[in-house]
Amino acid sequence: MRIPSNPFKRALAEGRPQIGLWSSLCSNIVAEILASSGFDWIVLDTEHSPNELPMVLQQLQAMQIDANTASPVVRPAWNDPVLIKRFLDIGSPNLILPFIQDETEAADAVSATRYPPRGIRGVSGIQRASRYGLVEDYLHSAEQELGLILQVETMAAVQRIPEIAKLDGVDGIFIGPADLSADVGHLGNPGHPEAQAAIMKALQLCKAAGKPAGILAPNEDDAKRYLDAGFVFVAVGIDQMLLARQSREIAARFRKYVGG
What we know:
- The protein is α/β, with parallel strands linked by helices.
- It is 42% helix and 15% strand.
- α2 packs parallel to α3, α4 runs parallel beside α5 and α9 crosses α10.
- The longest helix has 17 residues.
- It is globular.
- The N and C termini lie far apart (61 Å).
């Protein structure tokens, strides 16, 4: 058995636009539903949600429906080699690492995903990532199908995009609009002109470096604008937000039939 191909990694390398969704509900059932809903990639978030490794394992298992389902992208809570190792061992094909500030931190991230001598990833003989030993030559082929996305969230990090993006092993740069807008003085307002200027500067630096850029844009107009501007991978929704909005809308619509 060979290591499965990573369609998300291939799409980024080819510059093919990919639409995704953020999943923060920490549910294998939700992950299974989302995986076959037509998205190209789904983020299983552990940074801003109470999502722990055993739960993520169940979500990854639930997303293995068929070859046409969305690619899982796990976001560890931090650029930590121990967290990275554990999520890789349970079979996450893609990682998005938050708050990368410079090329040193980026290099550390890459190193944590590579086995020695190219990195520091701990070696385990049998784990889910190698299909419990069935994948031939997993230790030497794992990095070929691993997608690594680094998240840039401050202006200091934006300035370092040329150095971050040039590192071998970085498949894409994700711009964090909420944190970046806060960093430039507009907390909660990523639509502010100064925040938008920072986002577009980051995009241009990614383009100049030849590295695909991604962003989160739950608003349809924003998502279209970002795609038109050249962002390659765009998360167009958040499962918590979808549930909250739809449930409130349904309750309000039917409340009129019972009064109150």
